[in-house]
Amino acid sequence: MNAVFSKNMNEENFPVAALAGRKLRPTVEAYYAAARYADDIADTPNLTTEEKLSKLNKAEKAFFAGMNGQQFSDDNENAYRLGRIFHDEKLDASLYTDLLKAFTQDARNTPIAVWEQLIDYCRLSAAPVGRFILALHDEPPSAYLAAETLCAVLQISNHLQDLRQDAENLRRCYLPQELMDKHDVRFSDIYLSASSPQFKALIGEIVDKLQKMLRDASVLPALVKSKRLKMQIGIILSLTNSMLKKIIKHDVLVTHVHLSITDWAKALSIGMLQGLMRKTGKAANVL
Asked: Are 79 and 60 in contact (CB under 8 A)?
């Protein structure tokens, strides 16, 4: 997530609701709406840190009020409604509250020191979405780790796409300081008109890490039972691979990378087929 301006669900590169059938779609839409509302709070440039934290705290209170069947008069209808749904579906509260913890970090502009800290952030900001989808489909916990890895790749690739936007609007940076120091890159380099060789090397190392993670995550279709979910995960694996290749090919400080119609066509044909045909324990050939 982490977009400065609110997006319609279908405008995301990897729309969450696409992973749900008609029966589950209202629940997924409610989850997305509540997450989007909280994310927008953390990403609003004209709010102070204290105002953001106060609003996020109210969203959490509204959510738990919904879960506990209590009345709540604040303007957090999305969070309250999600709490009611979580109560009815017997879903774990952490699937939403972990997101709020990540948005709290965003509100505070918590700096990222090392790669492992970025992965920990993704466990709060992205992994809950994967666990939520798996829980709705009653998928086994054995699929959670691969889903967590895939969600982290999606999250960090979005960070790379939005580097300049996050810096200019929020003075926020998700690049680990350790890697920046290694490549002699400074935060101010993000404001340059084009990437320096050092900056390109930094992005290249991060993409290399993400491609390795994507290979680890490619076993996910083999770990889920739902055929529909297998196909959809295959599509996302293909789209993610295409996105990482585009990030390497283009200068992220010059071009905001988008998936093309060709990328989607390839994912819908090859990715869907690979996901559906994936045998248990065998990774998908996404690269």
From this structure: yes
